[in-house]
Automatic annotation (TrEMBL), chain A:
InterPro entries: Asn/Gln-tRNA_amidoTrfase_suB/E, Asn/Gln-tRNA_Trfase_suB/E_cat, Asn/Gln_amidotransferase, Asn/Gln_tRNA_amidoTrase-B-like, GatB, GatB_Yqey_C_2, Gln-tRNA_amidoTrfase_suB_CS, Gln_synth/guanido_kin_cat_dom. This is Aspartyl/glutamyl-tRNA(Asn/Gln) amidotransferase subunit B. PANTHER family: GLUTAMYL-TRNA GLN AMIDOTRANSFERASE SUBUNIT B MITOCHONDRIAL AND PROKARYOTIC PET112-RELATED, GLUTAMYL-TRNA(GLN) AMIDOTRANSFERASE SUBUNIT B, MITOCHONDRIAL. SUPFAM superfamilies: GatB/YqeY motif (SSF89095), Glutamine synthetase/guanido kinase (SSF55931). The keyword ATP-binding applies. Keywords: ATP-binding, Ligase, Nucleotide-binding, Protein biosynthesis, Transferase. One of its GO terms (molecular function) is glutaminyl-tRNA synthase (glutamine-hydrolyzing) activity. Allows the formation of correctly charged Asn-tRNA(Asn) or Gln-tRNA(Gln) through the transamidation of misacylated Asp-tRNA(Asn) or Glu-tRNA(Gln) in organisms which lack either or both of asparaginyl-tRNA or glutaminyl-tRNA synthetases. The reaction takes place in the presence of glutamine and ATP through an activated phospho-Asp-tRNA(Asn) or phospho-Glu-tRNA(Gln). It holds the Pfam family GatB_Yqey. Belongs to the GatB/GatE family. GatB subfamily.
Automatic annotation (TrEMBL), chain B:
This is Glutamyl-tRNA(Gln) amidotransferase subunit A. Heterotrimer of A, B and C subunits. The active site is at K80, S155, S179. Belongs to the amidase family. GatA subfamily. It comes from the Bacteria. Transmembrane segments: none annotated. It comes from Streptomyces piniterrae. Residues 25-471 form the Amidase domain. PROSITE patterns: AMIDASES (PS00571).
Amino acid sequence: MTVTDLVSYEDALAAYDPVMGLEVHVELGTKTKMFCGCSTTLGADANSQTCPTCLGLPGSLPVVNATGVESAVKIGLALNCTIAEWCRFARKNYFYPDMPKNFQTSQYDEPIAFDGYLDVQLEDGEIFRVNIERAHMEEDTGKSTHIGGATGRIHGARHSLLDYNRAGIPLIEIVTKPIEGAGERAPEVAKAYVAELRELIKALGVSEARMEQGQMRCDVNLSLRPQGTEKFGTRSETKNVNSLRSVERAARYEIQRHAAVLSSGGTIIQETRHFHEDDGSTTSGRVKEEAEDYRYFPEPDLVPVAPSREWVEELRATLPELPRVRRNRLREEWGISAHDMQSILNAGAVDLITATVDAGADSASARKWWMGELARRANEDGVELAALPITPGQVARITALVSDGSLNDKLARQTIEGVLAGEGDPDTVVEKRGLKVVSDEGALGTAVDEAIAANAAIADKIRGGKVAAAGALVGAVMKATRGQADAARVRELILEKLGVEG
Amino acid sequence: MADLIKLTAAEIAAKIASGELTAVEVTEAHLARIEAVDEKVHAFLHIDREGALAQARAVDEKKARGEKLGPLAGVPLALKDIFTTEGIPTTVGSKILEGWIPPYDATLTKKLKAADVVILGKTNMDEFAMGSSTENSAYGPTGNPWDLTKIPGGSGGGSSAALASYQAPLAIGTDTGGSIRQPAAVTGTVGVKPTYGGVSRYGMVAFSSSLDQGGPCARTVLDTALLHEVIAGHDPLDSTSIDAPVPAVVEAARNGSVQGMRVGVVKQFRGEGYQEGVLQRFDESVALMKELGAEIVELDCPSFDLALAAYYLIAPSECSSNLARFDAMRYGLRVGDDGTKSAEDVTALTREAGFGAEVKRRIMLGTYALSSGYYDAYYGSAQKVRTLITRDFEKAFEQVDVIVSPTTPTTAFPIGERVDDPMAMYLADVCTLPVNLAGNAAMSLPCGLAPEDGLPVGLQIIAPAMADDRLYKVGAAVEAAFTERWGHPLLEEAPSL
């Protein structure tokens, strides 16, 4: 059956209890690939970062990237997992042209890290514990580009182009245990988990975890069971959901879709589904008629990985403060609400604001610029906040110029605009654009005299005690100085010259 | 040049070093020999005349400049077509790699070049090293120089035939279940399977990763040792390569002795299926070692009876995965790409056309053995048997220094005799397989001719892992005693081609 009619979210939750499983793939930020010495830099010419090993040429052999293993152990420790004393890689066998060996070197029943948890904080501050089944090491595949089809998928394509630059880039796959008990908050929990995991990965310094670049990808597995029952329902697997918002939407959509199917007496088919960003829906992918048989077996070309306990403890000692703990500390330091902190997190601004404060700005000003003017610009340009061409140091300099009176807010905005346009650092922009507040008393005095002369009637009113009329003269001076004067000082000067007490 | 081609590698190297011969002369003599006899023998798939002569000239120039030459500088070698050679075709005996020119050298190829060994060309082999007769080559069979209607062993029949027909004094083989030792046995030459991890597998096209091992082949024990020393050693590109010094094999080969050694004879390496003349020569060899001062110890290794079954689950399982990469997408044969077929269809048509029957049989066996629901019963059980075999060896080596056996139960059989009977073919490796499963080192060397057919019989010597030097110590003593008894090397009795 095709389902286009969804049950309302409230009705779905009244009848059913959602159970989720989240599988997240993280591309590690190692300099070289997992099993060879090729570069992992993004954006290179197709197939320029390949060698016999990552092309799977006959005779080639893999060698494990030690930094990849170290990153996996760090992630495992940060997720409160047990680190295996001994584990092996395994071959996952299946044919696909973008996989050079037609098997993926992965881990099967001996993951490097297992049995952990991650506490995530929901918007209202509630902590929800997500249990982690395992985190294991594997390699990424190459990338296929299908030419000639309408959908960009292989179906209907005339031919396909293969780029193996990505083949062999280290991946860590992190799998949760079934997430139960989230109820109506399941989509929120899913989003918060992925957000928290992303922060954690970034804090560990093992990956930039940029979802829009595919460095972090999420599969959302979801099933429903009638309220009050224990047995899990049949699940769907929505693949490659690649933004935080999409994770939430995909979970929500699948809850409503499953409920619609189940309520009308249908059964859920175990299948993979594609998520559509445009309307938030999912559509059927490949039906798993028979469970795919990957014929896993231990990788005979690699020796077992046996992280010594001493080394694991050394790594544990180097773990940074957990992002959630750090956020709560910063929230108190900055004196803001949980809701504001959540907005800052969602905007990806925590590190930027912290760095701006570290560069000398007060936290209120730092937040004001990053969450105001800069967030607006990032949104307009459709880029991440961190991708804007302005540094926390530059933002700190602008706040300093404002607080010493060199710039007012309007001029500060123009300065930011100049920096973003590539005109140089804040001081250069101020200089080149001539944005400095006019504080030269002589020049300002002349402007005030001219304004009084040109508006004699108003000047008389002021002299007569109507101090409120000074606003009109202030406006005239500001106009004459193209907004570069300090309005408060202008007012003072006007009143002074007219012999009136302000 | 008849004399020149019969020289040992050690003699050739010495004459080049002394200036008595030039490397170019030596290479030209062997190229001429190949020209003269290989049409009949078919040991080579590809002759690299230009490359060989260039390498030889470089050696002569080095010599002229007064530079010190390595122990095998200028000596010609026949390389099994399973090692990648940059710019030179590498087919692994398969149609699926026809026309593939590797962009890189195997570590072993690099080591040979660095040692100034002259690579004459690439030798014939059973497709992907699967076979015991070289009849599974997609490029036609190789003849045994003792009798061209007989098989030269396999999978490395091209290398063993090249040695036995004096086309090269040195050759490289690979041994997954006996592919160095069984060809050596049936051609009256010497071959060593080093300890697993002793010689790098980087650039050696994989059949069964946990069993495959490259190794040296020659006509004498000393030559084999000299080549062993050149190709062995740790390679950071092969994670399973042993990071330890190479055992002192050349020193051992120069100081052959079995005096005071405990030599084990395993009762499982005997019985039904063993040719009478083979057992007769084997028993004589044991008696000889006793005469030379060895203590003979009877051993019982019950798990060895399960080796064949375990091997034919593990090797096909690994091969089913290793050979998956031959999908027509990146290199080699491509069939059916007419613009109307899917990638999946092109892969299927290419594999159908490019793989031979034995390769397909093993891919199917392995795919089945690894499949969900059967893994524990097949692959899992086979790994347990492997552990038992390793333990049997460990227990045996508590009592003895080396183990000896016939290398293969029969002498060379006629080409065509076993092609339709895989089980009969597989039995040729019954004595050699346990060694690969345990990762030990082993040698085959000639121990006489079987009286009933006048064909060579091989003696297998097995040593514990990392004790490869023992093979050479024992082998050199046995070789010296037999040569003295026969009055000449066994190969002198082979008919001239």
